[in-house]
User: What shape does this take?
Amino acid sequence: MGPHPAVAAIRLAVRRALHDVLTAHRTQPAQSPSPAPLVLVACSGGADSMALASALAFEAPRLGVRAGGVTVDHGLQDGSAERAQDVAARLSSLGLAPVESVAVRVARTAAGPEADAREARYAALDEVAERHGAAAVLLGHTRDDQAETVLLGLARGSGTRSLSGMAAVSGARGRYLRPFLSVDRQSTRKACMVQSLPVWDDPHNADPAYTRSRVRHEALPTLEKALGKGVVEALARTAQLSRDDADALDAWAAEAERSVRTDEPGERARVTLDTVGLYALPPAVRRRVLRRAAIEAGAPAGSLFARHIEEMDRLLTAWRGQRALNLPGRVEAERQGGRLVIRHGSPR
Assistant: This one.
């Protein structure tokens, strides 16, 4: 008799991810001796990441992959340090090694607590992965998480890239893998239950003070009540379609940018673009070129919103002698005759 369907689903998803890791490992220059690749699982103790850890512990030795784990203590709740140590002990009991519990300090910025915690968490995961030479870090985001991300992107009105949700592969050198983007949250919880894996439900996930929590417990259920079942699957499918479109447009924009750049090679924190060439581009491509230019000049990508790009675009499409435009990160954009100059700081 085979495993429960939920257990089979999570193991299959992880097996596919590990096959990709092995394929990439085998294409690297030969080492002497060549160690098996190490894959870490990032685990909070919740059902999604505990299911992921259990599947990794089962599949890794069968494929000749070393498997370890890491849990991050954000220090945002009472007892978080003890809970992190408990999660680390659970990972070790599954047979994972090495296992680390890492405490981080979450900075308070204008980006908000969710973004601040995420920034600290990924910095910690990067450090652990680098120190151990890990080939990949597995993250437990599910299809439900993807649907929530798409809905949040839709509410922000940030365009196709925002609607593309989370990538299955991301980070430096494709470090982060999300095997569960095609697995629903109910399956991960069921897999933990049938395997008698203890899970911890983060109270932040049910706190209406957090935007994602409101989307999860209020917005999506309301949509499913009004539109019927299948909203989560449709939103996740939208993410993949949008990602394909966004990738194609980004490639087009990269090529178009080379044709309209007029700045001297080697200039730093300054990008100069030909306004005539820019104006001739399709709007979707032109806005991507403008965004790329602003980021190259020093604007933080996370603070550069659709309204900033629209204001830059008006320097081309609705030019009436406007003054220089201030962008995040002390970057400004100014039209100078037939050129659009995006630079860091003011020359005045």
User: Anything to note?
Assistant: Residues 108 and 193 are 36 Å apart (CA to CA). The chain is about 50% helix and 15% strand. Residues 5-236 form a domain with the Rossmann fold fold (CATH 3.40.50.620).
